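Handout, section 4.2: multi-component inputs.
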Amino acid sequence: MIVATLKATEVSKTVQGQALLATVSADVHAGECLAVVGANGTGKTTLLRIIGGLMKPSAGAVTLDGAWIDERSAAQRGAIASLIGAPALYPDMTVEEHLELICATWGIPSPHAPGHVEDMLSMFELGALRDRFAHELSSGQLQMFAVAQVFTRPFSVLILDEPEQRLDAQRLAIVAESIRRVKREGAAVVLASHSAELVDSVADRTLRLDAP
Amino acid sequence: MNSREERLAFAAAAHVLAARGSGRSLSSTAMRVYLALFVVAVVGIPVLRALVLAMASPHAIAVVTAESTPAAVEWGAAALLLVVACIGSMRGAIVPRPAYVHFVVRSSLARRLTLRRPVIALHLLAAAVFGAAASIICGALAVAGLALDPLAGALFIVVAATYGVLLATAWLGGQVSGRVRTAAGITLVGFLTATAIAAAVGVADGLVGWFHTLTSAAASGTLVLAAGGIVLAIVVAVVSLTASFAMIGRLHGSELMAQGQAWASASMLVQTGDVRGSLERIRTPARHTPRRVSLHAGPLWWVIVKRDATGSVRHPIRLAIGIAAGALAGIFVAIALSVAPGAGAVIAATAAALAYLSAGAGSDGMRAHADNVGAPVLFGTGTQTLALLHLILPALVSCTVALVGAAFALTWTHGATSTVLVAAPLLAAMAVALRAVSAVKGPLPVTLLLPVPTPVGDVSVLFALAWSFDALLIALALGAGLGSFDGAISIPVLVLAAGAIMAVLAGWGRTRLRRLHP
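Output:
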């Protein structure tokens, strides 16, 4: 995994005079988890979208290993994995096939791909659901599936927006353990969450946002 | 609750729904009747007259009176019963509004009471459609100067209307069964039993052999046979309607609610101009296939082809319809290039519409990919590359099927063989390209929902519809253009023109894709 340092400097976002995110600075390094916390409407998702390169800030800059974040850069798209909102799915593909397709598009070699998919199915306890379509999953299972998809692709920076949504305590613990695992492997993680339990168990530092 | 109390409770519920605006008031019913009468007078009757005159043309009347027609109609009618029963297992014949299902249908009131109106309306509508079709044929026979016994004509119309009632019952039966195989099996057994009974008692040579009934009754002029046939047809219709009422008690409220919500959501999206979103709401979910295909092995293009093929097989009905439509498109191209340019343009435009319909069956992967565009990156392949890879399977299938259809049609049409065999797959390929361009169009621009006042009223809906159906309209225009050439167009010109159009479509699709994913 590439060593990455993600740095946001004095970023803010304003749309038609409405401030969505007050000026904020943050950085996160390889093997580290930064938790972004704050009440609803303080701009957590906006900040995550900005540092993921999905939205341009009104002011300030975001860099990845010194280079400006630009979603058009294939290298940066390959480095940053995001779970912000529900990922769009192929309605005619099963859980396992989605993970297989992700491996295929990222060029994970055939000898390793089946093992990687099995690893993900096992890690997120989706083995029993491998042959189900997305419309056959409960809301909590769908959330675990969404998290599993993001973890299946390679990355050096992981951005997670409230991954705890609709998850029970057992599955929340699984997500926490998987975040700790990728941290150990050298990924930089940015996590927005309302779950104090999740933040306490994975975050190295916390950034609290206030209403803009 | 006795039946009188049930009726009172139902009337009270209907009154509450009407008062809340979710039911039909007396004034709205009167307005509907008024509109229906005027539509029939202003549109319906002239259209019927035009159809009768068209059917009375020597070419059409020769088809109607051909020896092979009765058998073809019998097979077609039997197949339609099966198809409708299968459709019923996926799309219900009776789909009330969600509020009505929630408050009335799922109450303790008897279904024969709460669903009486839609059941009767369904059967009446089906009977009217088929009765009208039979009336057109009778009218055409009379206009053409062929001898037609009035009683035999009446029998023909009544039998056709009865078939409509049977069709409605089969549709409802499919909805009650909830499974394609069950619906098809029950309908097949019912159809064969009814045919055997009809043959045993000597009514024509089968339940749907109305052409035979018509011709034999007209030829013999037997009053008893015709009158007996009418009575029997009415009895069959009554039994069919009774069976429908017996079946509606077995409808699941939850499924009625799910279908009602899907249709309500779909109709709301249509009103906002989002036709694609509307179709998504009523699309049947994918089914499991016995064997799964591994997406690990092979180059990426092969992985995507396998993915798309697997996805298509998981929608078997849509796939079958798509293949049939594609083959029909090829047949129509062959016919269009063998007739006069005027008629050819209309037939080729129909072929283009069929090719567009066909291309849709294999384009689910493309559509799903278009929905992914703009979301955080999940797949490691570029957006445009993945879009192109998703075009391989639909292009291959559409072109092949159109080619087969065209080749089949060439055995009995007189078009230029090589031109037809090039034009059919080219039209199919353009239909696939148009599907791709349509898939990446993104959401309906808000500006199209703004009112456009004109002396004849707000025409903004026309712009929204034009935006929604832009690809189909272009396909129709391309088809009409192809059919205008009378088959005399040279193959190099045809290929060059198609290449130029494909290049324009590729550029347009790329622009749309970039707008979605700057």
